[in-house]
Amino acid sequence: MEALFAERLAPLQPSHIELVDESGEHIGHAGNTGGGHYWLTVVSESFRGQSRLARHRLVLTQFSDLIPGTIHALSIAAYAPDEL
């Protein structure tokens, strides 16, 4: 899955990507008909000057064809390089 996320995020030219698969913690919960639960941290110059909402939209656009489906839930922490 990490390779897929890296490939999808490549247009944002991230300097750092961290993906945590939390799917095991959500097995059998109501509404989960498949797909993984992920926590994504991504650092990119593309986020400089962008609001939190704009950053999330930039990320989610890269995965729109996988939600829902391959991805059931995606939590996002998006930072510009100097914000860490």
TrEMBL record:
Q: Which GO terms describe its biological process?
A: iron-sulfur cluster assembly
By its UniProt entry, which InterPro entries does this protein fall under?
A: BolA, BolA-like_sf
- Could you tell me which Pfam families the record lists for this protein? BolA
**What family does the Swiss-Prot or TrEMBL record give for this protein?**
Belongs to the BolA/IbaG family.
The cross-references to PANTHER family, in alphabetical order and at most eight, read: BOLA-LIKE PROTEIN 1, PTHR46230
Protein name, UniProt field: BolA family transcriptional regulator
Could you tell me which species this protein originates from? Answer: Leeia aquatica
